[in-house]
């Protein structure tokens, strides 16, 4: 069964303290891995799509990487406005639906 | 370019009633997917429509149904509401379903069942 597990469930960081969020996945053929950011009461906001192992993408303080079993979202020198829930999802080659993890709730304190 | 819009944003219903939620995709997007988000289960796939046809369905009871119109707008309906149907219902659109297209989400409809 296709599955996505995110860790940690919650993360508290001091402003400027870099860290990484993990997304482990099991899927019968990966078409794509997606990272989204979700603020309370809002819909998920698209961040990155990764397609194959070894691929990396960056956007401001965020960098996403992908291996055959997991993806990392690295946050460098975070700011309070980076506080949100970060969601990881996979799309299998045999199915178009997104399978989501339960997310990592990130809080960045000044 | 306007994003995905969903109406209404908030809805309060009582058990046994039915509800219809609406989603307008990004202009040019032909695929619309629906998800249910709850604190306990996270985001779960309901169904996907492309060119007015349901192409994929999640593991939800038949009380959950949907449709898509020729202009790609989509509606989902939940009949005989139960307390457990209280959730944020999210709609996502993408350009086409034949490749790995990014799904862009709307703000959601918060449904509360009393």
Structure summarized in a few sentences:
Helix content of chain A is 0%, strand content 60%. The N and C termini of chain A lie far apart (41 Å).
Topology:
The complex is a heterodimer of chains A (110) and B (114).
Chain A: E1 3-7, E2 10-14, E3 19-26, E4 30-38, E5 45-50, E6 56-59, E7 62-66, E8 70-75, E9 84-92, E10 98-100, E11 104-109
Parallel strand pairs in A: 2-11
Antiparallel strand pairs in A: 1-3, 3-8, 4-5, 4-9, 6-7, 7-8, 9-10, 9-11
Chain B: E1 5-7, E2 10-13, E3 19-24, E4 31-38, E5 42-50, E6 53-57, E7 64-68, E8 74-78, E9 87-94, E10 104-105, E11 109-113
Parallel strand pairs in B: 2-11
Antiparallel strand pairs in B: 1-3, 3-8, 4-5, 4-9, 5-6, 7-8, 9-10, 9-11
What would you note in describing this structure?
The complex is a heterodimer of chains A (110) and B (114). Chain A is mostly beta strands. Chain A contains no helices and 11 strands. In chain B, 0% of the residues lie in helices and 53% in strands. Chain B contains no helices and 11 strands. In chain B, strand 7 and strand 8 form a beta hairpin. The model of chain B has no long low-confidence stretch (mean pLDDT 93). Chains A and B meet through strand 4, strand 5, strand 9 and strand 10 of A and strand 4, strand 5 and strand 10 of B.
Question: What tags apply to this protein structure?
Answer:
heterodimer, A: 110 residues, mainly beta, six-stranded mixed sheet, 11 strands, B: 114 residues, seven-stranded mixed sheet, 53% strand
């Amino acid at each position: 069964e296709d599955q996505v597990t995110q860790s940690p469930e919650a993360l508290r960081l001091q402003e400027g303290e870099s860290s990484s969020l993990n997304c482990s996945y099991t899927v019968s053929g990966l078409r794509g891995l997606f990272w989204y950011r979700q603020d309370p009461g809002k819909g998920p906001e698209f961040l990155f799509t990764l397609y194959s192992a070894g691929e990396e993408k960056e956007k401001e303080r965020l960098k996403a990487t992908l291996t055959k079993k997991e993806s990392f979202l690295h946050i460098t020198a975070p700011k309070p406005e980076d506080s949100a829930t970060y969601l990881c999802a996979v799309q299998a080659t045999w199915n178009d639906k997104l399978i989501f993890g339960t997310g990592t709730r990130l809080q960045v304190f000044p | 370019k306007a994003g995905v819009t969903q109406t209404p944003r908030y809805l309060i219903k009582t058990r046994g009633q039915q509800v219809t939620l609406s989603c307008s995709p990004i202009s040019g997007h032909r695929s619309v997917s629906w998800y249910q988000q709850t604190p306990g289960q996270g985001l779960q796939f309901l169904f996907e429509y492309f060119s007015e046809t349901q192409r994929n369905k999640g593991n939800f009871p038949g009380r959950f149904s949907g449709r898509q119109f020729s202009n790609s707008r989509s509606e989902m309906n939940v009949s005989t509401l139960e307390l457990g149907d209280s959730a944020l219902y999210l709609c996502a659109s993408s350009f086409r379903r034949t490749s790995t297209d990014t799904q862009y989400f709307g703000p959601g409809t918060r449904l509360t069942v009393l």
